[in-house]
Each structure stands twice: as structure tokens, then as C-alpha cells.
Amino acid sequence: MISFRNFALRRGERLLLSDVDLALHAGYRVGVVGRNGAGKTSLFAALLGDVEPDKGDLDLPGKARIASVAQETPHLPDPALDFVLSGDVSLHDAVRMEREAMISEDWEKVAEAHHLLAELNGYDADARAGRLLHGLGFPATTHDRAVSDFSGGWRVRLNVARALMTPSDLLLLDEPTNHLDLDAVVWLEDWLRRYDGTLLVISHDREFLDNVTTHILHLHDGKAKLYIGNYTAFERQRAEHLRQQQIAFEKEQVERAHLQKFIDRFKAKASKATQAQSRMKRLEKLTGTEAVRAERGIHIDFPEPARMPNSLLSLRHVDAGYGEDAKILSDVGFALEAGDRIGLLGPNGAGKSTLVKTLVGDLAPMSGERSAHPDLVIGYFAQHTVESLVAGTSPIDHFKELSPNTATQEFRNFLGRWQFAGDRAFEAIDNFSGGEKARLALALIAWRKPNLLLLDEPTNHLDLEMREALAEALSDFDGAIVMVSHDRHLIGLVCDQFWRVHDGEVEPFNGDLDDYAAWLRSRPAGGESKPEAKKETAPAPAPAPAPVAKRPANKINPHKLSQAEARVTRLEEKLAECDAQLADPAVYADGARVADIGRIQMQLRGELEQAEGELLALYG
């Protein structure tokens, strides 16, 4: 159990948390949420022992093994597989001991190493590390590549794999999905649901939190409150709590006014003095319930495009890639019209970013035709866009680079709508957070009044509130949108069509994101493309996969199909019953009952995913 008693935490002069009293029991999977700057990462630092509490106590089990994701990855020549294996220090030491003993022919030491490896389940360690790498998007051909050869985003994935490899009783994950594709996020969710230790995860992906967590720890105004259930349950409980708080405040204000009126009228009268004194004491004892303060929500918007042609952009019989030896996509036919909302789905490395770059025009078609309307204005957010912002310059400087003849006040007015009000517009971006830089990059795109938005993972570094604001802005946008994102909540709200990029093809996907997740789980292992290497000047895609001979369609067994459909329906009904119970505010009066419902809900979700996969397999 992790225990906080009168816990307070300060960073510099700023008090982040105070008077925290709560306990986290073994096996909890806790989502840590709150606005940027609320103290989430500092809380993790305290759990790791990197910072001391300003006041109070933080108690951890004496022999608790803690694993966390390193913020930096050393520039190492070690193979990726060895780097992941080194997360298990005892196992890594035993492997090294065996290797050194074999070289020195110290057979007694070799036997000792073998005994130790058997105790540590070391003989399947390579396979376990390989499964972690595969799940996070690394094909087997990259497992022997040096760590230093991988680009920054892939090194983050290596750090995640290393943390998962580390034997632990407490696992701390700070934004683990930021550099993952949707398929890797789905895999990570499955892995974390099977983790039998205590998990604390900071994430701005509400679908991820819903699918993984059993509790939510909300940091707000220097306080920490633990809620039972996933993120959706937390939102319901918090809304009900705020409603009850406002009711209590209003009731108290009425009573205060009544008491004060009596005191003011009768305190000078000797016959009423005793009663007035009694009411004065009652007034002093009122708790002082705070009014609910309306939090200022973030609102952003994309201006209406200057022109909106009906047919914006099309690809006809396009082969796309980086040369004849690295063709990624073949015979692509893809047309965009005003109002289209398209989400690109596909396994890691399948060519989603290649397709987007071809649509933008950054990557010329190897063959075929790209046709764009003369009035087409593209707003392009790439995965490297945030890094391309110029250090040492301000938001105003970036806008002046776009429009040298525009008045500074016009820039300030526009930046104010993107939460860069006042002097923030003139501050150097060097000290901006990742979320602030991403917001600035989106504001620069919006300034150009595009009629087509091409967004490749725009939510990295954005917090939950900013993601909600972006979803609203994109929903109101009048132009067309093509989006790649691992944030299922965002892509599900914004997009009404999905195209799958897979095996060198781009084709419509007839289903929703749950259908896509089921398809991912039903895929045979292997077949991904090669991750981009840091040292290469161009992306490093794998050669296009060899065509696979199509098997004749399996004959569907009607009896099995009927049984599978009935099972899916039954599980969906049970899950709906759980959702309905959790939607009732009255249920939260009984914490144990809510916990039971939450556990049943998580179990049903797992069974439903399996049942849907089996149903999908019956269709061949």
C-alpha cells in the first residue's frame, strides 16, 4: 500500500500539493490527471525518491520494486534487444556473469550462473523482450539495431519496453502513449490490464484511461482526490460532487442571510439578546462551503477558409515511396472533397505518414498523378512540426515570418484566442511546454485559413482540455480533414470515414474504431515496416511486402456464427447494464459496490474483445 499522510510538495517557491491524505492499495491501476502544472510529474518524482516532501509523509512498502520510463535514452551502441533486457538488472547481471564465466572457462561459475538464470526465468528472457518490442512496433529485423540508430520517438518506445521488462511491484508511466501508433496503444492497454502490480499512469488519452484504470487521482488547486472507476466514471462523480457542493453553498448562504438578518434586528434588544447570541454562535460554526468556481475553458477555432472549392485534391494510380527499392504504397486512388472527414488507420510503418506527405506534395509520386485545385490551401501538422519551431523567438516572431506586413496588434488578437494572451505573445518559446508549442504550431496553421487540414499525430503533448478544444474546433471546421492519430476519442469525434493503410494498399475501412481494434488483435504477428532510423537522411521504410496469394474464402458455419453473434450480443447487454449502473449518481454512495461494478465492467470488456475477435475470424 502507498500511503500519503498530511503530504505537501513544493517545487521552488510554488506549493503544488498540500494536506494530501489517501492510500493506494496493491493492484490499483490509477490514472493521474489534472491540468498542466498541477504536480503530476512532481508526484512521480516524489514516489521515485527524487524529491522530498515539503511536509508530511509518503510511505511505500520497504521492498517495493519500482519501474518507470526514463526521460532520456543514452546514445548507446547496444542492440535494442539488449537495452530492453537490461531493464531486468538481476537477469542482465546473470547473463553477463554466464558470458564472462564461459570466456574464462570457470565452469563452477557457469553452473552458478545457470542456476541463477533458471531462478529468474532467464531462458525465455529474449523471447519476452522480443514480444515487448514487437508489441510496441519494432519488427524482428530491428531488434539487433543499435539504440543510437533510432530516432527520438522510437527511443521513447525503447524506454517504455525497458520499463515493462523491469520486474516491479509499482509501475509509473508518464504519457506512455505519446509516441505510439494506435496499434501499439491497443497492445499496451492489453499488457497493462494483465499487469498484476500497482500502476500509476499520467495520460491525456481518455480512451486509454477508460480501458486501463480502476481509479482516478485528480490533482486540482493543490489538492488530490481519489475516485473509484475509470475516467468516464470520474467525470460523472466529479460533476455530481460539484453539483452537490453548489447546492450546499447556496443553502448555506440562505441560512447565513437569515441568521444575520435576525442578529442585526434584535441584538440591541435586551429581550432578544440571548437568542441573538445563540444565532451569532451558529453563524460562526457554519462550515464555509466554497462556491463552485467555473473553470475557464479553452476555446480555439480555425477561421473560415477564404475559398472552398468542391474538389480539393486527388491521387490517381499513385505509387508512393522513397525510390524503386523502397516503394511503400501502390496504385493509390484517393480523392478529397469539401467537408470530408477522413481518419487514416493502419499498423505502424504501413505508410500513413507517407500517404500524408504525398497528399501535401512534400513527396512526389513515383508514378501516377496528384491533382490539386488552384485554390487549395493546405494546413499541415507533421510529427516533427513542434520541433521545427525556432528556438529563441516568440510567437509574434513566428507570425511575422508568415505575414511581414500585418500589424502586430492583429497577431496579438489572434494569439489571444489561442491562449497566448498579453506578454505571452512576446516570450521566447524556449521555456514553453510541449503542449504550448503544439498549440502555437496549430495557431500558425489556422492563421493561413486552410481549406484542407492534414494532421499527423497532432495531439502529442496536448492535455485533455486542449484535446477537447481541438476536437470542437475541428468539428466546426468548414474544410476537409485527413487525420492520423492514436487518440481514439479525438479521431472518433472528428472523422466520419476511415481508410486503412495496410500491405501497400489504401482502401476504405467499413467499420468503427472498435472494429479496427478487433482487426488489429486478429492479425497474425509480423509484417510491419521498419521504423525510421535517426542517422538516415530520409525515412527508412522497408521494401513493399511481397504479394500474398489469396486463399479461398472459408465456408461459414451458420451454427457457430449464430452462437458467436449471440455471445457478443449477450456481453454487450451486460456491459450496457454496468454502464447504466455507473451512470446513476446514487451508486457512488457505496464505494465497494462501485469497485465491484468497475471490476465486472473491465472483465466484460476483455471477454467482449475476445468474442468480437472470434466472431470476426468466423467470417474468414
Please characterize this protein's 3D structure:
With 620 residues, this protein is of the alpha/beta class. It folds into four domains: 2-65 and 168-229, P-loop containing nucleotide triphosphate hydrolases (Rossmann fold, 3-Layer(aba) Sandwich); 235-285; 315-522, P-loop containing nucleotide triphosphate hydrolases (Rossmann fold, 3-Layer(aba) Sandwich); 558-618. It has helices at 40-47, 80-85, 89-104, 107-119, 125-135, 152-165, 182-194, 206-212, 231-266, 273-285, 352-360, 395-402, 408-417, 434-447, 464-476, 488-494, 513-522, 558-582, 591-618; strands at 2-11, 14-24, 29-33, 55-59, 66-68, 170-174, 198-202, 215-220, 223-228, 311-321, 327-337, 341-345, 367-372, 378-381, 452-456, 480-484, 497-502, 505-508. A six-stranded mixed β-sheet has the order 5-6-7-3-8-9, sandwiched between helices. Helix 5 (125-135) packs across helix 6 (152-165). The two termini are 47 Å apart. 35% of the residues are buried.
